[in-house]
């Protein structure tokens, strides 16, 4: 099979297209012929081997899983012994966060893992939304965001941010989205109750106060956002923040048990895939697609993600649309 292979850590051009053995479906697994996948911020940071301490998990000298890619959407073409949830021909989507392997033409995944059926009305490239939704859901769930609460989402135009707006609205929260000029219409279309353009206004000077301020891109700080919080409010981040300061502040919050600063840890991805299919089917959730690339051009997709200017997701069309 054709796959994007990363033999070492480095810039986008280290990724090369190779012919590799096609995986087989083991016991309790299904083999999915991939039609669409994504290149995400996680893929880019893993390719860089960044941050350094992450290499304890991703591989000390090079990627432990040299075929990256977490999101997949495609068709089941083989089922292993003992498989009962899926059949050959089923259209499926999901996540492969432990083994990666989705930047390829086929991937084998556990039927008990983060995998679900794609709504019939949805194209494959519209279903590779799992990773952004997973991280957004993990943070909102960890906080316990409930109906009627106020949340500010900073960076509401990326994969995690666009997911967070939609998932927060589905919970009945009042959402303020902080984005740049070119994304204000998008944030409003996704359901944000208030859209703040950080390019023309100091969002930290707003009079509103929030139960949760969620930094979906890791570019703001708790000290800057502290005055936006209600007395029992909290600041959650999807990244380490400038100079890694969110790590130290979250550790201090854990020691003091204030939970004022938290780096959201990914929850069981099966949670989000379990309800995401229904949300996609009834229109409560939609993919925000920045651009499409062929698998042969995946290095260019990595380079685009590295600019940190993408809107929503960057799709790799493994099969022609």
From TrEMBL:
GO terms for molecular function: oxidoreductase activity. CDD domains: MDR1. It comes from the Bacteria. Residues 10-316 form the Enoyl reductase (ER) domain. SUPFAM superfamilies: GroES-like (SSF50129), NAD(P)-binding Rossmann-fold domains (SSF51735). It holds the Pfam family ADH_N. This is Alcohol dehydrogenase, zinc-containing.
